[in-house]
Write a structure and sequence with these properties.
473 residues, Alpha-Beta Plaits, Aminopeptidase, 5-stranded antiparallel β-sheet
């Protein structure tokens, strides 16, 4: 049987004797009131007594109203006043608005505690004493302790040094703390599944997924064979190597991937997650999204824009052969004869993303590269001479910048020459803040991306993107 009943079933049956008693009480009350009114009105101070009675009744009614309102807003006492101990009551609206109006700050914190009962409870007690809410909690077991990672919501008046001091007093050591934002509220399993999905769809996502998984770090991808064809000898054990603030993983494409984070040692849990992403990439093999867009140029020609990879090497080499020496020189900033040897490296999804433009007949006429370069991101374009000045470069550049925003890059830069008016105009056409720097005749144009459009920073602050190294012989 439930405790909730309908109003119809809860209504008590009426009886004629109850109605008769109520009616008799009403008549009795009227008679008594009439007798008292007559007695007071015919007395020597009748008028004064009537006025005093009215004032007394009004004051009593006002006091009763004030008393009822005050106690109706008081928080209920569990188990008293008709409320059961397990009942759920709505909070006072005034209290809810007051809590929402209080300014708070999100913090991400890591601290190491002894692996013994009560250590986590001591931290929670210290947080509760300063009205700090624990939004998420992860534990990273170690050989001689446990690393607890918290996402905290604390009063804005509470500084990082105050939190660190309280955690230290509660038994935490090697404490690290950094500001967070609302995007960090996504729980770790959801974030890891999302990164695995992105990696499964696109091989170029592996470096970015590692960065977002591990936070602010530097990722070096060292190929087993340099762009000049020399064997570099770079490799790593199948199981990988974890060494404090550095980890080394075997690259499925050959060579090794080294991840460094000097400010915070990696835990075995993080190492296992990174190795799982790399193993997923190795099992799936080479892959890129096969979507493509068909566009119409102002002159009426149709072009197709799509992602490119190493399978497009022959078509890219043919593009080089149709380009003039000046076009190749503006793109590669070196001897024209060396241009071909870089293509296989540039088309690899491990070092960035490449877009290609094809004509209706299937001939490749332009390439656009987005290259991870340390803590910066480079954009580079090459368009066949016969197809220049038709808007292809601007279209490619806009799409590359969109990919950089998606990858949460803070800026992109292009290396060119002042005489390359087409590239300068395309960069200005982005409508973004630009910085210009000239060094020995080389012009570097840096576009600052909108941080709001670029999304949230990677965990633990601004991330450092993949650093691709071109080993020379």
């Amino acid at each position: 049987m439930t405790d909730v009943t309908s109003a119809k079933s809860a209504r008590r049956p009426h009886h004629w004797r109850r109605d008769l008693v109520e009616l008799a009480a009403l008549f009795t009350a009227v008679a008594v009131a009439d007798a008292l009114a007559n007695m007071i009105a015919h007395g020597p101070d009748g008028a004064f007594l009537l006025v005093a009675s009215a004032v007394a009744l009004a004051a009593t009614a006002a006091f009763h109203t004030w008393w009822a309102r005050r106690h109706s807003q008081a928080p209920p006492t569990p188990g008293a006043g008709g409320t059961t101990a397990g009942a759920v009551t709505s909070p006072d609206p005034g209290v809810r608005e007051g809590r929402g109006a209080a300014e708070t700050t999100l913090w991400r914190m890591r601290t190491t505690v002894r692996d013994e009962p009560g250590s986590l409870a001591a931290l929670c007690t210290a947080f509760a004493a300063h009205r700090v809410d624990i939004l998420t909690l992860q534990t990273h077991p170690l050989a001689d302790g446990t690393v607890d990672e918290f996402l905290l919501r604390a009063p804005a008046s509470l500084q990082a040094k105050d939190l660190t001091r309280e955690v230290s007093a509660a038994g935490g050591s090697s404490t690290w703390i950094e500001r967070a934002d609302t995007h960090d509220l996504v729980d770790t399993p959801t974030r890891v599944l999302g990164l695995a999905t992105r990696t499964a769809l696109d091989a170029a996502e592996l470096p970015l997924a590692l960065r977002q998984l591990l936070g602010r770090c530097t990722i070096h991808s060292r190929p087993a064979v340099s762009v000049t064809g020399r064997v570099t000898g770079e490799t790593a054990p199948v199981e990988g190597v974890l060494d404090g603030t550095s980890m080394r993983l075997r690259d499925p494409n050959g060579g090794s991937i080294t991840v460094e984070r000097p400010y915070l040692p990696f835990t075995p849990t993080e190492f296992a997650r990174a190795r799982a992403l790399v193993e997923l990439d190795a099992r799936l093999g080479p892959r890129i999204p096969r979507s493509q867009d068909v566009l119409t140029l102002p002159q009426g020609e149709e072009i197709t824009v799509r992602r490119a990879d190493s399978d497009d090497l022959d078509a890219a080499l043919a593009l080089h052969r149709r380009c003039s020496d000046r076009t190749l020189g503006l793109r590669y900033h070196g001897p024209v004869g060396d241009a071909d040897r870089y293509l296989n490296h540039l088309l690899s999804p491990r070092f960035g993303r490449t877009l290609t433009v094809e004509t209706a007949s299937g001939r490749l006429v332009a390439l656009g590269h987005l290259l991870w370069d340390g803590d910066e991101t480079e954009v580079a374009l090459i368009v066949e001479d016969a197809w220049q000045r038709r808007g292809i470069g601007s279209e490619l550049l806009g799409r590359l910048v969109a990919l950089a925003v998606e990858a949460r890059c803070g800026s992109v830069y292009a290396v060119t020459q002042a005489s390359n008016t087409g590239m300068v105009a395309a960069m200005r056409g982005l409508g973004l803040p630009l910085d210009y720097q000239i060094d020995e005749g080389t012009l570097v144009i840096t576009a600052r991306l909108d941080r709001t459009a670029a999304g949230t920073p990677a965990p633990y602050g601004d991330a450092v993107l993949l650093d691709h190294e071109q080993a020379e012989s």
